[in-house]
Specification:
single chain; alpha/beta; two-stranded antiparallel ribbon; 8 strands; about 25% helix
Length: about 150
């Protein structure tokens, strides 16, 4: 798999190098910044969404200055069976965060989830099932997004 970021091209080994079949492995990318109130729920809702051997979560943090990192670290400690990577996003923009997350992802399927999102049970598994239809190239499902008190909707 070859990917690039805005800064420079990089080449990553195919997911098969990690023991995954590209068509079956999923990387969930979560860009965030100061999401202490919500990131824990978003991560908790991803537990059990897909077989752990074929699933990873990549949180791309815009250098949060609240307790976001502590919440993510606590989640890592209580869920050691889930592959979770935290990447810094000094640019603090969602597009840059997504590019960084995709560049670090090992899965053949990329799923984007917002830190305010509450994916329903089976969300990732259902997206993968629909994506396996040869007529599909991109899929999405309804996902509830919870605004914070400071976020106008």
């Amino acid at each position: 798999m070859s990917t690039s970021t805005l800064a420079e091209p990089i080449t990553l080994p195919a997911p098969a190098a990690f023991g995954w079949q590209e068509s079956e492995s999923v990387s969930v990318i979560i860009p965030c910044y100061n999401e202490e109130k919500f990131i824990g729920k978003a991560l908790a809702n991803l537990v059990g969404q897909y077989p752990a051997d074929y699933f990873e979560i990549v949180v791309v943090d815009g250098m949060s200055d609240d307790g976001t990192r502590a919440v993510i670290t606590e989640f890592q400690q209580t869920h050691p069976d889930i592959a979770l990577t935290i990447i810094d996003n000094p640019a603090r923009t969602i597009p840059r965060g997504l590019n960084l997350g995709i560049a670090a992802a090992r899965g053949g399927i990329i799923a984007r989830v917002d830190a305010h999102a509450a994916p329903s049970a089976g969300y990732i598994r259902r997206c993968v099932a629909v994506l396996n239809d040869p007529r599909a190239a991109v899929v999405g499902m309804p996902c509830r997004v919870r605004p914070s008190a400071e976020t106008p909707m």
